[in-house]
Amino acid sequence: MITAKILVVEDDRNLLAALKYNLQKGSYGVVTAADGIEALEVARREKPELIILDVMLPKLNGFEVCRIIRKEMTVPILMLTAKNDEVDKIVGLEIGADDYMTKPFSMRELLARIGAMLRRVEMAKIQPSGEKMTRQVSDLEIDGARHQAFLRGSKLKLSPKEFDLLAFLTQNKGFVFNREQLLEKVWGYDYAGDTRTVDVHIRWLRQKIENDPAKPERLVTVRGTGYKLEG
After folding, report:
1. Which fold has domain 5-125?
2. Residue 129, pLDDT above cutoff 60
3. How many CB atoms lie within 10 A of CB 183?
4. Is the pLDDT of residue 16 over 60?
5. Which of 34, 174, 188, 225 is 20 to 30 A from 19, alpha carbon to alpha carbon?
6. Cα separation, 202 vs 52, whole angstroms
7. Distance between CA atoms of 9 and 62, rounded to whole angstroms?
8. At residue 56, does pLDDT exceed 80?
9. What is the CATH number that goes with domain 134-229?
10. pTM higher than 0.90, yes or no?
11. Pairing mode, strands 140-143 and 5-9
């Protein structure tokens, strides 16, 4: 039984074959692309539930592909980078990727991350019994049933992970969470000590919900502790 359709964008034939094999073994449907232009064509045609996207691609690099896809759809994107370069990771997150992994990586960890990302998407579609799905914090509204957020009545354009993070903080308004707790609660797995992704998503959210992102009044930093959403 196919549980989800995944688009794998990778120009290394051996790695592409390994990814396809392991994903299919894990009951995922797999479509593939070997360059950036083909990736856009396949994503638009197939509408996958998740995209695994290499950074170094022919014709159009992974950053540009991610940037374009994020403007068109909210599908979760996991980026692969061939080098342990913080710049690549941060750039990927800032243009809308939900997660990243550095090559070489463990196939077991990759599958765990994919599973966690897809579970978060599925959980967002299901209204928990007795749980309030619409929350209001000042002029910020979170509609969990539609997976949408509004600021002063205008819809915010958020990536899936940005929405998850904002929804969690809204649900726990006034409580402080450190980076490790946010990774566990929002991302759904242990990030092995790499917490930079939380800071990037916090900064990205601030650009969308704060009057002055450099002086945040809603999503604030509690020095030495973590982050919280003010009422």
Report:
1. Rossmann fold (3.40.50)
2. no
3. 20
4. yes
5. 188
6. 23
7. 9
8. yes
9. 1.10.10.10
10. no
11. unpaired
